[in-house]
Amino acid sequence: MNIGIIGTGNIATYLLEQINVNHLAKGKITAVFGRNQEVGQRLSEQFQVDFHTDIQAFLETPLDIVVEAATVEAAGLYVKDVVTHQKDLVVSSIGVFKDVVFLDEVKALAGSNRTHIFLPSGAIGGLDVLQSAKAAGGLERVQITTRKSPQSLGIEADEEKVIFEGSAFEAVENFPKNVNVALVLAIAGIGVEKTKVRVIVDPAIERNTHTIEAEGDFGRMQLQVENKPMPNNPKTSLLAALSILAVLQNKDRALRIGN
Ligand SMILES: NC(=O)C1=CN([C@@H]2O[C@H](COP(=O)(O)OP(=O)(O)OC[C@H]3O[C@@H](n4cnc5c(N)ncnc54)[C@H](OP(=O)(O)O)[C@@H]3O)[C@@H](O)[C@H]2O)C=CC1
Ligand SMILES: O=C([O-])CC(=O)C(=O)O
């Protein structure tokens, strides 16, 4: 499997290390697309990958799957191109799909190009429960409370404070690098308007903590994940990078676990 990566940051570097050096997935990252020539050159030498600043040239290389690990904005620019070039796609910046029409367009393109789109569970879990819970309708309420340090949120604060309360749609507009988890939750569950999000800044906390609550005909779920932030980017939890690695490890397996 030839893997391409969009982005030259923390997750991209983590995947290069785990796949090209530690061989933790089948195949190899053969090409990276980015806009930072200096960093791209360094990654190219360190991990023996081609570096491209031209998206068409990147997508014309023989890739089986492309992992977006950049930003919501970059995902908006490039995900359709990836699918129309008939590559499977893994999206990290799931906030790009707050626009439901855009998500439907990308899904339709994937259908007509016979490709697959993978949305990793990222820094959370419980998506299996939500999807089962709504299989026959009847999922009523979904909420996520994200608690992060000022450093992880990239803001200053000297006391615990609720800094946002609203829909998943509004949350992405306010914190595009911190609430992609709310979007995958919304897509798996009851949508971007009905999924409620609270963001709390907490100077006393060291882990990126997400608490998910859901209720419906199935009963009730509460799940809390206390994530270690990544050293190179404390906004991002290690679990988010691991979940992309797991998608790449599992994508062609005969045995599927969870719905
Ligand atoms: N689903 C989930 O649970 C999670 C999702 N995420 C998503 O994953 C993304 C990546 O995370 P992480 O690697 O930690 O973030 P980083 O900020 O470390 O890396 C993002 C990289 O993207 C590059 N980039 C930005 N804009 C563009 C562009 N237009 N074209 C090409 N490259 C671009 C930046 O490089 P430069 O600016 O130098 O060009 C930067 O190095 C986050 O932005 C977030 O959207 C993160 C955490 C959890
Ligand atoms: O990594 C995390 O804890 C969550 C995150 O940043 C995101 O969802 O964008």
Biggest sheet: strands side by side, in what order?
A: 3-2-1-4-5-6
Largest sheet: 6 strands, parallel
CATH architecture of the largest domain: 3-Layer(aba) Sandwich
Number of strands: 13
Strand content: 25-35%
Question: Low-confidence spans: pLDDT under 50, at least 5 residues?
Answer: none
Oligomer: single chain
Tell me, what's the shape?
globular
Q: Calculate the mean pLDDT score and round it.
A: 97
How many helices? The count is 10
The SSE string, one letter per element, is EHEHEHEHEHEHEHEHHEEEEEH
Give the helix level as a range of percent: 25-40%
What is bound: which ligands?
Answer: NADPH dihydro-nicotinamide-adenine-dinucleotide phosphate, oxaloacetate ion
Output the CATH homologous superfamily of the largest domain. Answer: NAD(P)-binding Rossmann-like Domain
CATH topology type of the largest domain: Rossmann fold
Structural category is alpha/beta
Task: Show the helix and strand layout.
Blueprint: E1 2-6, H1 10-21, E2 28-33, H2 37-47, E3 50-52, H3 55-59, E4 65-68, H4 72-84, E5 88-91, H5 100-112, E6 117-118, H6 127-133, E7 139-148, H7 150-153, E8 161-167, H8 168-174, H9 180-188, E9 196-201, E10 208-216, E11 219-227, E12 229-230, E13 233-237, H10 238-250
Parallel strand pairs: 1-2, 1-4, 2-3, 4-5, 5-6, 7-9
Antiparallel strand pairs: 7-10, 8-9, 10-11, 12-13
Helix pairs in contact: 1-10, 8-9
Bound molecules: NADPH dihydro-nicotinamide-adenine-dinucleotide phosphate and oxaloacetate ion (OAA).
NADPH dihydro-nicotinamide-adenine-dinucleotide phosphate binds next to helix 1, helix 4, helix 9 and strand 13.
